[in-house]
Structure formats: structure tokens, C-alpha cells
Amino acid sequence: MLIVFHSKSAAEVLMFGNHALPILRAAGKKFESDELPERGVITREQLPAAIEGIERAMAISKETEEGPETDDDNDDKVHPISEPVSFRRRAYPLLAMLRLANEKQEDVQWEPATVW
Known about the structure:
Elements (H helix, E strand, L loop, with lengths): L1 E6 L2 E7 H10 L13 E3 L4 H19 L21 H18 L3 E5 L4
Helix pairs in contact: 2-3
């Protein structure tokens, strides 16, 4: 399911539900099942804790993603398009939205994206 995050203070963020679920869990949202509810909200009161939780998860993710650095200019390197998208890269647009919403004290909501 494709979902869209809305906030008055930022542009919309589109994300697949299965990719948004771990980010929202890091933000402190509790879900009874392993599926993201179609609609939800992060209230302005929840924003500081949500931002902190995502930043903490991004820091942990960064530590586990970084491999040993080498100066080997080898042709065996994987092309960036073939690499999996990291938690940090997936979470960053939503984190930026949450930060802006926190500054303006506005809620962030999500719902299914409209079909084009």
C-alpha cells in the first residue's frame, strides 16, 4: 500500500506502508499487527519523542551499515543502484517533515495515497 504523509508545514511524503512501518515504530507508534493502519496521526505533542526515536534508530542504523573503509579502487564495487536502500535514507524525508511540523506545532497525518 502506498501512503502519503501530510503536514501543513512541509511537502507531502510518499512511502510504501511496509517501509513506513519500521520508521513509525522507531517514532514510538505502537501497532497491534504487523501492518500499518491506513490512517494515523503523529500529534504535535508526540513530535519531539518521535523525532528523537527516529534519530536514535538512524544512528544505530549508521553504525551497522558502515563497512570497513579501503582505498582499493577495484572494479568489483557494487553500483549504487544495486545497493539496498538504508533505513536512514528511507527515514530522512519523514524526519525532515516531522522537524518542520514540530517547529510550527502542527500534526502529521498519513493516509492511503490516491491512485494516479
